[in-house]
């Protein structure tokens, strides 16, 4: 990868990264390649916004500087963040962490922050517009990574918030307006200095190794200082030469879990040593695209795309448990024998992405039977069900899995006549085989190809998704991060 690697962080235009109907354009493929290669090498990339969006980001940063500048020199006791993991999806309003010399205002749609004890307080301006902008960008980036991994379109939609939010819903994603080391904030007595790094004195927070538990994080700051560890273990200043319309994007732990470790999360830290004489400190906008608390992280989409899934990613993990659990980073960034991405250079010099399949890795276990069942079910659908539908002039329209569990027990359901005409297996929901539980897939295959299970290796036990979820809830699932 070193021979074909990027000399610095990849820069991608947001306009080239927005997906569209039909075949992907050359600019989209090149942008996806640059993005994923930069994430593989540096765990980060640079996103270039259109001019109008850049003006909105700059205005928000100006508003942030004024907001924090008028705050008291030291926060009251109720404004000091406790870092309680149970509050991961509930934070809102102003918080401060004197140990990190950092102040934060969290904007989370659906939550009304409590008023300050000193009376009415006005938040930084433009937060709803910034939240909507960065939320859309984060989803586009997530779709680009999915495209590279050969996943279906919007494969993570089931674990993301609704767009827009329904009445009464609270956003899991959050926009944080941050300020590091403003001169009037008296929380500096807890900071510490590193010795020497690259010939310069560097000061970092006490918690030197930070990893976001997000799917995707976007950061726009008014001053350089964000360092991220690259795949060789070196700390790289990633926002040193950002333009006024550019921001940093990096993946988090939730994406690492959902992609079975194919996309490594970014290990980052913030330098604040050069801000002591600065009046406003370092202000930044940080958007974290988070999974919904009432959902589970699983690697079903990775299996469906043919990727090998290691044992530690086999069971689904409830999001709320995942967010509250500690994730040691030692093993996470020392897996040099597994390269998540690889790239080949074509004759015209462009980068052609190539996913290295983990199923050939000696550390990976053989693919579970559900993988073979899914492929066989899709083959049967194409060769049997579609032929029947075409001959009878039936246009297949599959149901939603949960809804159709009730349909199969009623005679006047929307899919009753279609199931009868096409000879759909009794008791099996009328949904695409890709979405069927494993045991239902067996019934589906036996109906159209009798004796199939007897001719295939079924030594490994098949577990219903509901049973797997129940099992993960009843035992302590420890990841080998």
UniProtKB/TrEMBL annotation:
Gene3D superfamilies: B-lactam Antibiotic, Isopenicillin N Synthase, Chain (2.60.120.330)
InterPro entries, per the entry: IPNS-like_sf (IPR027443)
Organism domain of life: Eukaryota
Region span, Disordered: 344-373
Name of this protein: Isopenicillin N synthase-like
């Amino acid at each position: 990868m070193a021979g074909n690697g990027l000399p610095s962080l990849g820069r991608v235009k947001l306009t080239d990264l927005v997906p569209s109907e039909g075949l992907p354009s050359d600019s989209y493929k090149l942008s996806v390649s640059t993005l994923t290669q930069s994430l593989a090498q540096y765990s980060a990339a640079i996103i270039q916004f259109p001019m109008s969006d850049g003006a909105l980001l700059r205005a928000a940063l100006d508003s942030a500087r004024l907001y924090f500048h008028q705050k008291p020199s030291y926060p009251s006791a109720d404004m000091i963040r406790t870092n309680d993991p149970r509050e991961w999806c509930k934070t809102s309003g102003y918080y401060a962490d004197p140990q990190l010399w950092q102040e934060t205002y969290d904007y989370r749609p659906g939550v009304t922050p409590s008023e300050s004890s000193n009376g009415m307080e006005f938040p930084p301006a433009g937060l709803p517009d910034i939240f909507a902008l960065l939320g859309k960008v984060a989803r586009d980036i997530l779709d680009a990574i999915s495209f590279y991994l050969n996943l279906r379109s919007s494969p993570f939609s089931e674990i993301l918030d609704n767009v827009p939010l329904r009445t009464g819903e609270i956003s899991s994603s959050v926009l944080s307006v941050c300020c590091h080391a403003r001169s009037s904030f008296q929380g500096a007595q807890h900071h510490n200095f590193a010795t020497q790094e690259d010939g310069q004195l560097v000061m970092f927070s006490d918690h030197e190794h930070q990893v976001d538990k997000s799917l995707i994080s976007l950061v726009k700051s008014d001053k350089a200082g964000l360092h991220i560890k690259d795949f060789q273990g070196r700390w790289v200043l990633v926002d040193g030469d950002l333009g006024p319309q550019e921001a940093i994007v990096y993946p988090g732990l939730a994406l690492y879990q959902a992609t079975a470790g194919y996309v490594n999360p970014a290990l980052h830290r913030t330098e604040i040593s050069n801000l002591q004489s600065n009046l406003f400190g370092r202000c930044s906008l940080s958007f974290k695209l988070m999974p919904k608390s009432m959902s589970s992280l699983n690697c079903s989409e990775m299996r469906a795309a043919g990727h090998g899934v290691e044992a530690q990613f086999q069971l689904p993990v409830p999001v709320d448990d995942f967010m509250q659990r500690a994730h040691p980073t030692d093993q996470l960034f020392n897996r040099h024998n597994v390269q998540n991405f690889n790239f080949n250079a074509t004759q015209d010099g462009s980068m052609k992405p190539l996913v290295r399949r983990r199923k050939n890795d000696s550390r990976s276990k053989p693919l579970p039977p559900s993988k073979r069942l899914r492929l066989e079910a899709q083959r049967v659908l194409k060769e049997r069900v579609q032929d029947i539908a075409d001959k009878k002039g039936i246009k297949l329209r599959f149901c939603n899995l949960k809804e159709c569990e009730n349909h199969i027990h009623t005679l006047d359901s929307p899919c009753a006549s279609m199931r009868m005409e096409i000879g759909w297996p009794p008791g099996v929901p009328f949904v695409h085989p890709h979405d069927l539980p494993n045991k239902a897939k067996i019934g589906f295959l036996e109906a159209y190809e009798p004796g199939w299970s007897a001719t295939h290796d079924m030594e490994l036990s098949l577990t219903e998704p509901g049973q797997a979820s129940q099992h993960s809830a009843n035992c302590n699932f420890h990841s080998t991060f």
